[in-house]
Amino acid sequence: MRITGGSRRGRALKTLSGREIRPTSDKVREALFDILGPRVTGAAVLDLFAGSGSLGLEALSRGAGRVTFVEKSPRAIAVIRDNVEELGFEDLAAVNRLDLLARPGGLARLDGPFDIVFVDPPYRLTRTVDPASKPGNILEALWTNKVVESPRGLVLLEHDRRSSVSTDWEDFQVSDTRTWGDTSVSFLVSKHL
C-alpha cells in the first residue's frame, strides 16, 4: 500500500493483516481524493476506524491542515504512529484510541470540528446503515456532537456495495454514492445548509 498523491506520493505504508482488516485500496483512495480535489487543502480531517491510517495520511500528503486518527486496536495505533513518523507528519497528526462502537459519544472529546470525516467501519457492520445501526449511531453522533463542520462538512462512509444505506436521517443526507468493485463510498452532507 502506497500514498497515491501529494508531497509523499509513492511512499510505502505499513499495514495490518488479519481477517477483519480491509484497508481502502490505493485505487479507491486515489479516486476519492481526485473527487475531493482542492477541498482537502488546509482541511481538518477525521479518520475513524483508521486501521493503518491510509486515508488520513493520504489527506496529509495532499495538503490537509491536520488529521485526527481514531482506532480502538492497540496494534493499529502502533502502525498509525509508525506511519505518521515515517512520513514526517508528527506535527499535523493526533492519534486517539477509542472504541466508537461502544462509545460513539466519545467523539465529542475530539479536537473538532472537522471539515472532512472518513468513516470506514468493518463491512460486516455496514450491511444495513440506518439510524438504529451501530454505524448509524456514529454518523448521528458526528452531527449531534458538532464534530462535523456544518454546513460545509463532508462525511465519507465506506461500505460494501451491497449495503443498504438509509436516506432517513435527521441531520444529514446522502448526496452521492460512488462504487469501485465491491467498495462503495456514500457522501453525506448536512441537511441544514
What are the main properties of this structure?
Rossmann fold, two-stranded parallel sheet, seven-stranded mixed sheet, 25% strand, 193 residues, globular, alpha/beta, single chain
Describe this structure in words.
- There is one protein chain.
- The chain contains four helices and nine strands, in the order αβαβαβββαββββ.
- With 193 residues, it is α/β, with parallel strands linked by helices.
- The protein has one domain: Rossmann fold.
- Strand 1, helix 2 and strand 2 form a beta-alpha-beta unit.
Task: Give a brief rundown of this model.
This protein has 193 residues and is an alpha/beta fold.
Task: Please write out the topology.
Elements: H1 26-36, E1 44-48, H2 54-61, E2 66-71, H3 74-87, E3 93-97, E4 116-119, E5 128-129, H4 134-144, E6 154-160, E7 164-165, E8 172-180, E9 183-190
Parallel strand pairs: 1-2, 1-4, 2-3, 4-6, 5-7
Antiparallel strand pairs: 6-9, 8-9
Total count of helical runs of at least 4 residues: 4
The Cα radius of gyration reads 15 Å
Identify the strand order in the major beta sheet: 3-2-1-4-6-9-8
The CATH topology corresponds to Rossmann fold
- Sheet-strand content, in percent, reads 15-25%
- What's the N-to-C terminus distance? 37 Å
Helix content: 10-25%
Shape: globular
Order of SSEs:
HEHEHEEEHEEEE
The CATH class is Alpha Beta
CATH homologous superfamily designation: Vaccinia Virus protein VP39
Number of separate structural domains:
1
Largest sheet: 7 strands, mixed
Instruction: Round the mean pLDDT to the nearest integer and report it.
Output: 88
SS content category: alpha/beta
CATH architecture name:
3-Layer(aba) Sandwich
Which regions have little confidence, pLDDT < 50, spanning 5+ residues?
A: none
Tally of strands = 9
